[in-house]
Amino acid sequence: MVELDIFYFYRLSMSVSSLTRIYDEGDVPISVAGPHLRLAKMALESLSTKLMQRVFPDSTSKAHEIVNIINRILPRTPSSPTVYEPYIPAVEILRIRQAISTFTIALETESKHRYVICVEDQRCLSAYTLVEKIEMCFPPEAWNTIDQHAKREFEESGKALSLERYTAAGFHALRGVECVIRQYLIDLTGSQPAKRDWGHYIQMLKQAGVDANLIAVLDNIRTLNRNPLMHPEDWLDIDDAIGVFNISHTAIARLAEGIQKALKSKNPVP
Fold first, then answer.
1. How many degrees, rounded to 5, is the angle at CA 236 between CA 232 and CA 242?
2. Nearest C-alpha neighbor of 187 from the set 169, 173, 208
3. 146-152 long-range contacts, CB within 8 A, separation 24+
4. Do residues 84 and 26 make contact, with C-beta atoms less than 8 angstroms apart?
5. CA–CA separation, 95 vs 65, rounded Å?
6. Rounded distance, CA 85 to CA 99, Å?
7. What is the DSSP string of the chain?
8. Cα angle 241-242-245, degrees, rounded to a multiple of 5
9. How do residues 175-187 score in pLDDT, each as one tens digit?
10. Which of 10, 170, 203, 233 has a Cα-to-Cα distance from 178 of 20 to 30 A?
11. Structure confidence by residue, pLDDT tens digits, 53-104
12. What is the pTM for the complete model shown?
């Protein structure tokens, strides 16, 4: 999946289409055609990024051909005024128009086989937050406390939720919670848990005297969300996914608070 600026194609079309208005069945003064040529050249050169070459390979190739034609014309522009204003031969302008026609067909053809998805807000969760600013869904202290593995899981959860892949969103959110549970247990015990099992995690937290409210939240997630979601027949809809995401948010806030306390007890302020 790649990110495309839809408005870029509007600017591109405006810049390139301006070239079609400078042909009048004869040679064209460089003072008339020059600004249009330079504007189109800048727009077409911006199409030659690695991303665009990957997404629109034929179109970028045709754009490069137009740029080459323009480059052959523009150097004829004198660097200082002369008595006679230079003209661009009509045949060159016609060649550009033909190249633009070929480019347009290529872009139209390739665009038909490219999917552009507009993500929508999911209830009260904005698409922008889910895709680009997932950290805004968490208290800053909590987000700064959890490790990179958990952050990556919640980033994936937000993107899946924005794309309406609700079961995947819940799955990644619960993986994120598990990452932070393990992080907390390492801080408490100094070693990895012996088993990758939520029941085992919760038992270890109980033995460590962790806050009962946190235990209750995690046990509810385990029995009501995590265990059922491991079965192939269980699928989430939008409200299920948002519910899992929200309860994961609560768990992360409580886990991060516990991690901070554990770290302070290990490194007391003198």
1. 145
2. 208
3. 146/176, 146/179, 146/180, 146/183, 146/252, 146/255, 146/256, 146/259, 147/179, 147/180, 147/183, 149/179, 150/176, 150/177, 150/179, 150/180, 150/183, 150/252, 151/176
4. no
5. 11
6. 26
7. -----HHHHHHHHHHHHGGGGS--SS-EEHHHHHHHHHHHHHHHHTT-SHHHHHHSHHHHHHHHHHHHHHHHHGGGS-SS--SS--EE-HHHHHHHHHHHHHHHHHHHHHHTT--------BTTB-HHHHHH-GGGGS-HHHHHHS-HHHHHHHHHHHHHHHTT-HHHHHHHHHHHHHHHHHHHHHHHHSS--SS--HHHHHHHHHHTT--HHHHHHHHHHIIIIIHHHTSTT----HHHHHHHHHHHHHHHHHHHHHHHHHHHHHS---
8. 90
9. 999 999 999 999 9
10. 233
11. 999 999 999 999 999 999 988 865 455 555 556 788 888 888 898 999 999 9
12. 0.80
Two tokens, residue 15? 């810049």
End-to-end CA distance of the chain: 51
> Taking Cα atoms as reference points, which of 115, 116, 259 lies closest to residue 177?
259
